[in-house]
Design goal:
This protein is α+β, with helices and mostly antiparallel strands and 103 residues long. It is globular, with a radius of gyration of 14 Å. The chain is 35% helix and 37% strand. It has a 4-stranded antiparallel beta sheet with strand order 2-3-1-4. Helix 1 packs antiparallel against helix 3. It has one domain: Alpha-Beta Plaits, CATH 3.30.70.
Length: 103
C-alpha cells in the first residue's frame, strides 16, 4: 500500500470553486480508479480555509495511474489559482484498523 496526505491552504475567496473542483474530481476517482483504495477530502475545524486529502493506493503503480488520469491532470492544473500553498507527505501504512476486505 502507498499513500499521501496533502494539506491545501485555499484562498478564502476561492473556497467554493476549490470544493467544486474537488467534488468533480472525486466522481471520476470513484468511477475510474480501481487501484485507489481510499480518497477522502476533509475540512479542518480550526482552519476553515484548509483542506486535507487522505489518499491510499494499492501500490505505487496505482498512484502513478491516478497521477496520469485526465481528471487528476485537470485538478492539478485548475487548482493553481485557487490555493495559497500545499504540502504533500508520502506515507506507507504499516498497521491499523481497516474495514473487512480492505487491503
Amino acid at each position: 500500500m502507498y499513500g499521501l496526505i496533502v494539506r491545501f491552504e485555499v484562498k478564502p475567496d476561492r473556497l467554493v470553486e476549490f470544493d467544486d473542483l474537488v467534488a468533480e474530481t472525486l466522481v471520476a476517482i470513484r468511477e475510474e480508479e480501481a487501484g485507489t483504495l481510499l480518497y477522502v477530502n476533509a475540512t479542518v475545524d480550526e482552519c476553515p480555509t484548509s483542506r486535507i486529502f487522505v489518499e491510499l493506493y494499492a501500490d505505487e503503480s496505482a498512484f502513478q495511474a491516478h497521477e496520469e488520469a485526465d481528471h487528476t491532470r485537470r485538478f492539478l492544473r485548475d487548482r493553481e489559482g485557487l490555493i495559497d500553498s500545499y504540502r504533500v507527505e508520502s506515507i506507507r501504512p504499516t498497521d491499523g484498523k481497516v474495514p473487512p476486505g480492505f487491503s
